[in-house]
Design a protein that fits this description.
8 strands, alpha+beta, two-stranded antiparallel sheet, 5 helices, 4-stranded mixed β-sheet
């Protein structure tokens, strides 16, 4: 069994992340995988702070996939219709690793796959974030994020039970 499949509560692909091609992304549309606790779609490359928020939210929760370069004209069900890609800086994998290093402590475990669109300079970036055993992951802004339904939200500072749960989960 692939390590991506065995370590994740949700992994929609039949191949390991490092073997994915653009064709495998079609399964997300065909099986109607909408934004959820385990999946977040972005059409354009978000600001570094937003990427860090999403990654730490997945790590503090149950893990998941951040997919950048989807078509966000997806209607009410929030399922993209295609993956045309978006522009990334040179070395997109290193770009994400640097964001994790600079914005999140401790650094969460991620696997990253960049799929270049053969017909343009655009590509799709898939970031697979493991559920962490080193919680809580605290962002540079001092906040702790977690994934709830289809959104990443900060843990309220006055909610001691939520913060305690993340610390206990990491022990």
């Amino acid at each position: 069994m692939n390590s991506e499949i065995s370590n994740q509560r949700f992994y929609p692909f039949d191949k390991p992340l490092n073997e994915l091609t653009m064709d495998e992304l079609k399964v997300l549309v065909e099986k109607n995988y909408c934004e959820s606790l385990f999946v977040e779609y972005k059409s354009e490359l978000p600001k570094e702070k937003k990427i860090a928020k999403s990654i730490s939210g997945f790590a503090n929760s149950y893990g998941g996939l951040l997919i950048i370069g989807s078509n966000r004209d997806c209607g009410e069900d929030e399922v993209p219709s295609s993956f045309p890609g978006t522009l990334f800086p040179n070395e997109p994998k290193e770009y994400i690793r640097n964001i994790c290093r600079d914005y999140i402590s401790p650094i969460p475990l991620t696997k990253i796959k960049y799929l270049k669109n053969e017909n343009s300079k655009k590509g799709v970036l898939i970031i697979l974030v493991d559920e962490s055993i080193e919680t809580p992951h605290i962002n540079k802004d001092g906040r702790i994020y977690r994934r709830q339904s289809g959104r990443t939200e900060s843990v309220p500072e006055n909610n001691r039970n939520s913060v305690d749960y993340l610390y206990e989960k990491g022990i």
